Structure prediction request, 349 residues.
Amino acid sequence: MLNKWVTTSLVAILLVTGCSKNETVEDPANEELNGVDNQGEESMDSPEEKTVYPLTGIAQEGNGNQRAIAVMINNHPKARPQSGLTQADIVYELLAEGEVTRFLAIFQSEQPDRVGPVRSAREYYIELAKGFNSLYIAHGNSPEAKKMLADEYVDHLNGLYYDGTLFERVSDRQAPHNSYISFAHIEQGAKEKNYELDGAPAAFAHLTDEEADKLSGSVAGEIAVSYGKDERFDVTYDYDETTKAYKRSSDGEWTTDYDTGDPVLLSNILIIEAKHTVIDGEGRQDIDLTSGGKGYLIQRGMMSEVNWVNKEGRIYPVIDGKEQPLAPGKTWVNVIPQEPGINQSVTIN
Prediction:
Protein backbone atom coordinates (compact mmCIF):
# COMPACT_ATOMS: atom_id res chain seq x y z
CA MET A 1 0.00 0.00 0.00
CA LEU A 2 2.89 2.33 0.87
CA ASN A 3 4.67 1.48 -2.39
CA LYS A 4 1.51 2.27 -4.37
CA TRP A 5 1.21 5.67 -2.62
CA VAL A 6 4.88 6.52 -3.26
CA THR A 7 4.60 5.61 -6.93
CA THR A 8 1.50 7.74 -7.43
CA SER A 9 3.13 10.70 -5.64
CA LEU A 10 6.27 10.51 -7.81
CA VAL A 11 4.19 10.56 -11.01
CA ALA A 12 2.32 13.64 -9.77
CA ILE A 13 5.58 15.42 -8.89
CA LEU A 14 7.08 14.65 -12.30
CA LEU A 15 4.01 16.03 -14.04
CA VAL A 16 4.20 19.28 -12.11
CA THR A 17 7.98 19.80 -12.33
CA GLY A 18 7.94 18.94 -16.05
CA CYS A 19 5.98 22.13 -16.72
CA SER A 20 7.49 25.61 -16.80
CA LYS A 21 6.31 28.29 -14.40
CA ASN A 22 3.94 29.63 -17.08
CA GLU A 23 2.52 26.30 -18.16
CA THR A 24 -0.40 24.33 -16.81
CA VAL A 25 -1.31 20.69 -17.19
CA GLU A 26 -4.23 20.52 -19.59
CA ASP A 27 -7.24 18.35 -19.09
CA PRO A 28 -7.48 16.04 -22.15
CA ALA A 29 -11.15 16.85 -22.27
CA ASN A 30 -10.22 20.45 -23.17
CA GLU A 31 -7.82 19.61 -26.03
CA GLU A 32 -9.99 21.18 -28.71
CA LEU A 33 -10.31 24.40 -26.74
CA ASN A 34 -6.56 24.62 -26.18
CA GLY A 35 -5.41 24.43 -29.81
CA VAL A 36 -4.99 20.66 -30.03
CA ASP A 37 -6.83 18.84 -32.79
CA ASN A 38 -8.56 15.51 -32.42
CA GLN A 39 -5.47 13.70 -33.69
CA GLY A 40 -3.48 14.93 -30.69
CA GLU A 41 -1.35 17.35 -32.80
CA GLU A 42 -1.05 20.98 -31.72
CA SER A 43 -2.49 23.49 -34.24
CA MET A 44 0.17 26.23 -34.43
CA ASP A 45 -0.92 27.99 -37.62
CA SER A 46 -3.13 31.04 -37.30
CA PRO A 47 -3.76 33.40 -40.22
CA GLU A 48 -2.02 36.76 -40.00
CA GLU A 49 -4.46 39.56 -39.42
CA LYS A 50 -5.24 41.54 -42.55
CA THR A 51 -5.68 45.29 -42.86
CA VAL A 52 -7.95 47.14 -45.26
CA TYR A 53 -5.68 49.60 -47.04
CA PRO A 54 -7.04 53.15 -47.27
CA LEU A 55 -6.43 53.90 -50.96
CA THR A 56 -7.42 50.54 -52.44
CA GLY A 57 -10.07 49.23 -50.04
CA ILE A 58 -8.41 45.80 -50.24
CA ALA A 59 -7.60 43.70 -47.17
CA GLN A 60 -4.08 42.33 -47.16
CA GLU A 61 -1.35 41.41 -44.71
CA GLY A 62 0.54 44.22 -43.01
CA ASN A 63 -0.23 46.97 -40.55
CA GLY A 64 -1.33 49.45 -43.24
CA ASN A 65 0.09 52.42 -41.35
CA GLN A 66 2.97 53.27 -43.67
CA ARG A 67 3.17 56.76 -45.11
CA ALA A 68 2.22 57.32 -48.75
CA ILE A 69 5.09 57.87 -51.19
CA ALA A 70 4.37 60.08 -54.24
CA VAL A 71 6.75 59.72 -57.18
CA MET A 72 7.00 61.84 -60.33
CA ILE A 73 7.23 59.39 -63.24
CA ASN A 74 8.32 60.22 -66.78
CA ASN A 75 5.84 59.42 -69.58
CA HIS A 76 7.89 60.41 -72.61
CA PRO A 77 7.88 57.59 -75.21
CA LYS A 78 11.60 57.10 -74.54
CA ALA A 79 10.77 56.42 -70.88
CA ARG A 80 8.31 53.61 -71.59
CA PRO A 81 7.70 51.07 -70.23
CA GLN A 82 8.11 52.44 -66.73
CA SER A 83 8.96 50.59 -63.53
CA GLY A 84 6.62 50.41 -60.54
CA LEU A 85 3.35 51.68 -62.00
CA THR A 86 1.59 48.33 -61.56
CA GLN A 87 2.02 48.65 -57.79
CA ALA A 88 0.82 52.22 -57.40
CA ASP A 89 -2.50 52.62 -55.58
CA ILE A 90 -3.39 55.78 -57.52
CA VAL A 91 -1.82 57.42 -60.56
CA TYR A 92 -2.56 61.00 -61.64
CA GLU A 93 -1.85 61.83 -65.29
CA LEU A 94 -1.57 65.52 -66.19
CA LEU A 95 0.16 67.68 -68.77
CA ALA A 96 3.62 68.87 -67.78
CA GLU A 97 4.40 71.07 -70.77
CA GLY A 98 3.02 71.28 -74.27
CA GLU A 99 1.15 68.04 -74.93
CA VAL A 100 3.52 65.85 -72.89
CA THR A 101 1.93 64.14 -69.89
CA ARG A 102 3.60 63.08 -66.69
CA PHE A 103 2.48 60.79 -63.86
CA LEU A 104 2.26 61.21 -60.12
CA ALA A 105 2.17 57.68 -58.68
CA ILE A 106 0.97 57.26 -55.08
CA PHE A 107 2.31 54.15 -53.32
CA GLN A 108 0.98 52.97 -49.97
CA SER A 109 -0.27 49.38 -50.02
CA GLU A 110 2.69 48.14 -52.09
CA GLN A 111 6.29 49.15 -52.59
CA PRO A 112 8.12 48.10 -55.77
CA ASP A 113 11.84 47.36 -55.68
CA ARG A 114 12.47 50.40 -57.87
CA VAL A 115 10.43 53.09 -59.57
CA GLY A 116 11.04 55.35 -62.54
CA PRO A 117 12.18 56.92 -64.68
CA VAL A 118 11.81 59.77 -62.17
CA ARG A 119 11.16 63.23 -63.61
CA SER A 120 11.01 66.83 -62.43
CA ALA A 121 8.47 68.50 -60.17
CA ARG A 122 5.60 70.84 -61.03
CA GLU A 123 3.63 72.79 -58.45
CA TYR A 124 0.25 71.10 -59.07
CA TYR A 125 1.79 67.65 -58.66
CA ILE A 126 3.24 68.85 -55.37
CA GLU A 127 -0.24 69.97 -54.29
CA LEU A 128 -1.65 66.53 -55.10
CA ALA A 129 1.13 64.83 -53.14
CA LYS A 130 0.47 67.16 -50.21
CA GLY A 131 -3.16 66.02 -50.13
CA PHE A 132 -1.98 62.55 -49.09
CA ASN A 133 0.71 63.88 -46.71
CA SER A 134 3.10 62.02 -48.99
CA LEU A 135 6.85 61.95 -49.06
CA TYR A 136 7.37 63.48 -52.51
CA ILE A 137 10.01 62.15 -54.90
CA ALA A 138 11.18 64.07 -57.99
CA HIS A 139 14.31 64.67 -60.05
CA GLY A 140 14.49 68.35 -60.92
CA ASN A 141 11.91 71.10 -60.75
CA SER A 142 10.29 74.03 -62.53
CA PRO A 143 10.99 77.53 -61.11
CA GLU A 144 7.64 77.57 -59.29
CA ALA A 145 8.14 74.07 -57.89
CA LYS A 146 11.71 74.92 -56.81
CA LYS A 147 10.42 77.61 -54.46
CA MET A 148 7.82 75.28 -52.93
CA LEU A 149 10.44 72.61 -52.30
CA ALA A 150 12.95 75.12 -50.93
CA ASP A 151 10.29 76.31 -48.48
CA GLU A 152 9.75 72.67 -47.37
CA TYR A 153 6.10 72.83 -48.41
CA VAL A 154 6.27 69.02 -48.55
CA ASP A 155 8.77 66.47 -47.29
CA HIS A 156 10.73 65.55 -50.40
CA LEU A 157 13.78 63.96 -51.98
CA ASN A 158 15.06 65.70 -55.12
CA GLY A 159 17.38 63.85 -57.48
CA LEU A 160 19.16 67.09 -58.28
CA TYR A 161 20.95 66.70 -54.96
CA TYR A 162 21.23 62.90 -54.84
CA ASP A 163 22.13 62.03 -58.43
CA GLY A 164 24.34 58.95 -58.35
CA THR A 165 23.64 58.24 -54.68
CA LEU A 166 19.96 57.78 -53.78
CA PHE A 167 19.01 58.18 -57.44
CA GLU A 168 20.69 55.91 -59.96
CA ARG A 169 21.18 56.31 -63.72
CA VAL A 170 20.61 53.23 -65.87
CA SER A 171 22.82 52.62 -68.88
CA ASP A 172 20.17 51.40 -71.32
CA ARG A 173 18.37 54.77 -71.51
CA GLN A 174 19.55 58.30 -72.08
CA ALA A 175 19.06 61.29 -69.78
CA PRO A 176 16.61 62.67 -68.78
CA HIS A 177 14.82 59.33 -69.16
CA ASN A 178 17.14 57.18 -67.05
CA SER A 179 16.83 58.24 -63.39
CA TYR A 180 15.50 55.59 -60.97
CA ILE A 181 15.14 55.24 -57.23
CA SER A 182 14.60 52.15 -55.08
CA PHE A 183 12.33 52.08 -52.08
CA ALA A 184 15.33 51.10 -50.00
CA HIS A 185 16.96 54.39 -51.01
CA ILE A 186 13.73 56.29 -50.33
CA GLU A 187 13.79 54.90 -46.80
CA GLN A 188 17.48 55.77 -46.47
CA GLY A 189 16.89 59.34 -47.64
CA ALA A 190 13.91 59.76 -45.32
CA LYS A 191 16.01 58.69 -42.34
CA GLU A 192 18.82 61.07 -43.32
CA LYS A 193 16.34 63.98 -43.42
CA ASN A 194 14.42 62.82 -40.31
CA TYR A 195 11.16 62.34 -42.23
CA GLU A 196 8.48 60.12 -40.72
CA LEU A 197 7.63 56.98 -42.68
CA ASP A 198 4.54 56.12 -40.64
CA GLY A 199 1.11 57.70 -40.88
CA ALA A 200 -1.37 56.32 -43.39
CA PRO A 201 -3.43 58.76 -45.47
CA ALA A 202 -7.15 59.15 -44.87
CA ALA A 203 -9.18 56.44 -46.58
CA PHE A 204 -11.36 56.86 -49.63
CA ALA A 205 -14.89 55.45 -49.45
CA HIS A 206 -14.96 52.02 -51.09
CA LEU A 207 -17.64 49.64 -52.26
CA THR A 208 -17.62 45.97 -51.42
CA ASP A 209 -17.03 43.59 -54.32
CA GLU A 210 -20.69 42.64 -54.21
CA GLU A 211 -21.77 46.29 -54.39
CA ALA A 212 -19.34 46.96 -57.24
CA ASP A 213 -20.80 44.06 -59.23
CA LYS A 214 -24.21 45.75 -59.07
CA LEU A 215 -23.09 49.14 -60.40
CA SER A 216 -25.21 50.63 -63.16
CA GLY A 217 -24.66 53.36 -65.72
CA SER A 218 -23.68 53.63 -69.35
CA VAL A 219 -21.70 50.74 -70.82
CA ALA A 220 -18.00 51.59 -70.95
CA GLY A 221 -16.05 48.69 -72.41
CA GLU A 222 -13.49 50.86 -74.17
CA ILE A 223 -12.48 54.42 -73.35
CA ALA A 224 -10.22 56.68 -75.42
CA VAL A 225 -8.70 59.84 -73.91
CA SER A 226 -6.92 62.54 -75.90
CA TYR A 227 -4.66 65.21 -74.41
CA GLY A 228 -4.16 67.04 -77.71
CA LYS A 229 -2.80 66.54 -81.20
CA ASP A 230 0.20 64.43 -80.19
CA GLU A 231 -1.13 60.89 -80.50
CA ARG A 232 1.81 59.47 -78.57
CA PHE A 233 0.03 60.59 -75.41
CA ASP A 234 -3.42 59.30 -76.33
CA VAL A 235 -4.74 56.79 -73.80
CA THR A 236 -7.07 53.81 -74.24
CA TYR A 237 -8.64 51.64 -71.55
CA ASP A 238 -10.12 48.19 -72.29
CA TYR A 239 -12.34 46.33 -69.85
CA ASP A 240 -11.76 42.62 -69.15
CA GLU A 241 -14.84 40.95 -67.66
CA THR A 242 -12.73 38.05 -66.40
CA THR A 243 -10.47 40.18 -64.20
CA LYS A 244 -13.12 42.91 -63.68
CA ALA A 245 -10.36 45.43 -64.42
CA TYR A 246 -9.23 47.79 -67.15
CA LYS A 247 -5.96 47.47 -69.02
CA ARG A 248 -4.33 50.72 -70.13
CA SER A 249 -2.51 51.43 -73.39
CA SER A 250 -0.66 54.50 -74.59
CA ASP A 251 0.13 55.18 -78.26
CA GLY A 252 -1.17 51.69 -79.06
CA GLU A 253 1.11 49.88 -76.56
CA TRP A 254 -0.09 48.22 -73.35
CA THR A 255 1.13 49.92 -70.17
CA THR A 256 3.27 47.25 -68.52
CA ASP A 257 6.02 47.07 -65.95
CA TYR A 258 9.54 47.23 -67.41
CA ASP A 259 10.94 44.83 -64.81
CA THR A 260 8.17 42.23 -64.62
CA GLY A 261 6.15 42.62 -67.81
CA ASP A 262 2.93 42.72 -65.76
CA PRO A 263 0.14 44.94 -67.12
CA VAL A 264 -1.38 47.85 -65.24
CA LEU A 265 -4.84 46.70 -64.07
CA LEU A 266 -7.33 49.30 -62.86
CA SER A 267 -10.60 49.08 -60.96
CA ASN A 268 -11.42 52.79 -61.18
CA ILE A 269 -10.85 55.37 -63.89
CA LEU A 270 -11.67 58.98 -63.08
CA ILE A 271 -11.49 61.44 -65.97
CA ILE A 272 -11.93 65.11 -65.10
CA GLU A 273 -11.60 68.41 -66.91
CA ALA A 274 -9.79 71.39 -65.38
CA LYS A 275 -8.73 74.82 -66.53
CA HIS A 276 -5.21 74.83 -68.05
CA THR A 277 -3.18 78.00 -68.63
CA VAL A 278 0.21 78.09 -70.39
CA ILE A 279 2.52 80.21 -68.23
CA ASP A 280 5.86 80.39 -70.08
CA GLY A 281 7.67 79.89 -73.35
CA GLU A 282 8.49 76.29 -72.42
CA GLY A 283 4.79 75.44 -72.52
CA ARG A 284 4.56 74.80 -68.79
CA GLN A 285 1.05 74.75 -67.39
CA ASP A 286 -0.88 76.17 -64.50
CA ILE A 287 -3.71 73.68 -63.80
CA ASP A 288 -6.64 74.62 -61.58
CA LEU A 289 -7.24 71.63 -59.31
CA THR A 290 -9.36 73.46 -56.76
CA SER A 291 -12.42 74.85 -58.55
CA GLY A 292 -14.09 71.54 -59.45
CA GLY A 293 -15.88 70.62 -62.64
CA LYS A 294 -17.23 67.79 -64.77
CA GLY A 295 -15.97 64.24 -64.90
CA TYR A 296 -16.59 60.58 -65.66
CA LEU A 297 -16.21 57.77 -63.13
CA ILE A 298 -15.73 54.38 -64.78
CA GLN A 299 -15.93 51.10 -62.85
CA ARG A 300 -16.75 47.47 -63.68
CA GLY A 301 -17.54 48.26 -67.31
CA MET A 302 -19.94 51.08 -66.41
CA MET A 303 -19.65 54.87 -66.62
CA SER A 304 -21.34 57.53 -64.51
CA GLU A 305 -21.27 61.27 -65.08
CA VAL A 306 -19.95 62.99 -61.96
CA ASN A 307 -18.60 66.27 -60.75
CA TRP A 308 -15.29 66.53 -58.99
CA VAL A 309 -14.39 68.54 -55.92
CA ASN A 310 -11.17 69.23 -54.08
CA LYS A 311 -11.33 68.61 -50.35
CA GLU A 312 -8.17 69.23 -48.34
CA GLY A 313 -6.01 68.77 -51.40
CA ARG A 314 -7.62 65.57 -52.68
CA ILE A 315 -9.89 65.11 -55.67
CA TYR A 316 -13.19 63.29 -55.10
CA PRO A 317 -15.93 62.29 -57.55
CA VAL A 318 -19.37 63.43 -56.36
CA ILE A 319 -22.97 63.20 -57.48
CA ASP A 320 -25.33 65.77 -55.97
CA GLY A 321 -22.57 66.66 -53.53
CA LYS A 322 -22.16 63.09 -52.24
CA GLU A 323 -18.81 61.35 -52.54
CA GLN A 324 -18.97 58.35 -54.86
CA PRO A 325 -17.26 55.23 -53.49
CA LEU A 326 -14.49 53.54 -55.42
CA ALA A 327 -14.44 49.87 -56.36
CA PRO A 328 -11.79 47.86 -54.50
CA GLY A 329 -8.50 48.08 -56.35
CA LYS A 330 -6.26 50.58 -58.09
CA THR A 331 -7.27 53.94 -59.58
CA TRP A 332 -6.08 56.10 -62.48
CA VAL A 333 -7.03 59.78 -62.75
CA ASN A 334 -6.79 61.59 -66.10
CA VAL A 335 -6.88 65.41 -65.85
CA ILE A 336 -7.60 66.91 -69.27
CA PRO A 337 -7.88 70.56 -70.40
CA GLN A 338 -11.22 72.27 -69.97
CA GLU A 339 -10.82 73.41 -73.58
CA PRO A 340 -11.89 71.53 -75.66
CA GLY A 341 -13.25 69.68 -72.63
CA ILE A 342 -14.30 66.21 -71.62
CA ASN A 343 -17.05 65.81 -74.21
CA GLN A 344 -14.61 66.41 -77.06
CA SER A 345 -11.57 64.63 -75.62
CA VAL A 346 -13.11 61.38 -74.36
CA THR A 347 -14.79 58.64 -76.41
CA ILE A 348 -16.62 55.81 -74.66
CA ASN A 349 -17.86 52.62 -76.31
User: Anything to note?
Assistant: Helices lie at 2-17, 123-131, 143-150, 183-192, 209-213, 342-345. Residues 59-348 form a domain with the YerB-like fold fold (CATH 3.50.90.10).
